[in-house]
Amino acid sequence: MEIYRIPEDLRFVNQIGQTLSAEEKIKLEIALIKLSQTQTFDQLLFWGRIEGTVANYYIAIGLNFKNNFEFPHKTFFYTANLKEFQNLPPLNPEYKEQVETFRQLFSGQPEKILINITGEDGDQPPADQPNPDEPQPVVKNDDDSDVEIKPPPKNFLEVDRLAYVVNAIEFECALLPVGAVRLTPTHELRYNDSFEGLNLQEASKIINYQHFRAPQSPNKKELIAQDDALFHYDFFDQLDDHPVGQWSLQTDSSKYQVTIRNLQWPGFLGYHRAGTRIFGYAYFGDGIKNVDLAFQL
Amino acid sequence: MLKEKLQEVKDQNTNLYEHLNNLLTKILLDNPKNAFELFEDYSFQVKSNGFKFEKYDEFDNAERSKIKMDQSIQQKTLKLINKINLGTDEEPQEATQTGYLPNLIEESYLYEWAGIGIDENYKIFKALTLLSVTKQASKLRFWGKIMGRQKDYYIAEGIATTQVEDGELPPEVEPRGTGVNTKSYWACNDLLNDKDWIELPLITPQQINTSRQIKYIFTGNLENDVITNPYFFGKEKHLLKAQIVRITQSTVIIPKGQYILREGEPREIDPAPEYKLPGFHDLKTLNDWIHFNQNILNCGRLVHLIPSELPEGIEPEAYQKQIENADPFENRLKPISNDKNAWKIRIVGDTTDYNPLSKDTNNKVNNGVIIIKSLVWPGLVTVYSNKVLSQLYYGYGYKATNNHFYPKQPQQVQSEQPDLPEQPEPNFPAEVPQQPQD
Q1: Contact yes or no for A103 and B38 at CB 8 A
Q2: Chains A, B: CB pairs < 8 Å
Q3: Is the ipTM of this complex over 0.85?
Q4: A124 vs chain B: nearest CA distance in angstroms?
Q5: pLDDT the model gives residue A144
Q6: Residues 6 or more apart from B158 whose CB is under 8 A from it?
Q7: Which of A182, A253, A292 shows the shortest C-beta gap to B215?
Q8: Which residues, 6+ apart, have CB-to-CB distance to A56 below 8 Å?
Q9: What is the number of alpha carbons within 13 Å of residue B341 lying toward its C-beta?
Q10: Contact across the interface for B217 and A297, Cβ inside 8 Å
């Protein structure tokens, strides 16, 4: 969601019953503008809100199109108190399976420990694990070429789970209308300035929307690598992932405002106003994946 | 020489020389800042629009895409938000009295503080007003929106006053107006179509119990079959009603003290005499709120069914005690703080105490908003602010579960009994006519 258009674009989010309160809007705008001044991005977007039991997380995403081959670089930021955005920590692939089993709500406290490695406060960590407080012994290879330093084991905090969830949602759900972006001759991604929006008929067909991620399917990978890719607009993956039926495209009563919702991540929606350049996506939910979807259809 | 060369590269309408002319003219006219990046775009646009540089002052960019709204949608929208007209355009007919309908527009403002955005709230409000007039429903309110795969449902809750004949009902079904079928619910897909409000049918205890075992996302079509295991006997409209009733029975909450138990009949409640809605500070914790409705029993009804023919040797009272012990009632008006991990309460908004307009400074005015969200039925939210209490559901209509959902396996299809070994038919000697005895 464009950060200067949040109040207007919230109209689409209303279709799933979510919105930002007046207080949230004011604080969010201040925090986003502060973020855009400290770090420069080609585009800063408001990604969404994950509700927790005590507090909510607000996520922003910075995109860098220039100098990035084929797909812009995405940087995520989060804040729980709406005062200042901080970087989301990088993903640690070790805990991937465990995170997927977490089904409880987020609490809203980023420092909350979810998986305890170092033991309770005050207890001694197990003797075989290096103590995180002591300086790590530097392990030198025999030929003195590379110096390996073992990173101290850290607890898995809620902010790490947040990083997983945000990256997963972005990977599985982020979408755009076909034609909204194009490649330059140097194979960088840009917004298509001549995009006038999908017309009424096209906007209600899910085939006219595509994922907003580096293409995963083999034919799209080929397409984007070709030299004439800049004359095509559909070089991203189609919205045809398994389980089939996880996407729900609906309009409001005027038929102009189209939302595309994801049933695996209830709370995610992509939106577009037919005939205009207004499009985007956002997530307003509790951050829990609906893994039972296959049984619900 | 170059010009002829370029003119040789031809297409149907134009040649390369002309195209370059047109393209450069357009770029000079528009003077964009990043012409280099947009060069291919311009080329594409000039080709598709047929821009000709000689006629550049006639060319109007705005021709490109005119927004045309469907005429019928325009008319329907206007009809919905104008004054209700039950007759036709030529003979307007005023609407007769409508029943009670809370002002959704004011309540939307409260819900916005809770982070719940009601889409198209004015259209919903007018559609409900129309429903109230056409169905003569009293005590109507917007119950919420249940999202579906293809379409969503807008749900209205009320009590229909028009008499409806239900015919013979099986004994375990609670008749209209009692038990789980106390309130009527109407569902609508398209707000602009006033005929679209369909009343949801009565439901049976069996349907309630089956709905407890399945997890389903609605499609948006009330007449669809629901294919699940255990099999849900009924169409989507029955399942929708079952879920709505389950949600309502377990999540309607009121401030403590607004109702009291009736003496002698602890299952019944009465409004407390001389009760005033408390101010902001008395409702800030979960302890101050209680359940309003009875919960649904394990058998799928609100009240146990006493069959008319009891087994021999058992008194009716003893029998009643027996089934009540097997399937006990929960206390009415129990506080919601007893429900573990089921509620989340937040306070938002401006919580300063203001002095009221009148000289009485004891009752300060506080505009804070108290939000209580259900964690068991995500999407259910209750808001309270300044003496306005309201409740809404915006969700997909299923419970939040911590464990993965595994549907019950269908029963094993039993193998056929092996055929009995066949015996040869005993051949009785054919009746031999008796020889006449000599």
Answers
A1: no
A2: 119
A3: no
A4: 32
A5: 44
A6: B99, B132, B135, B137, B138, B139, B140, B141, B183, B184, B185, B186
A7: A292
A8: A49, A50, A80, A108
A9: 7
A10: yes
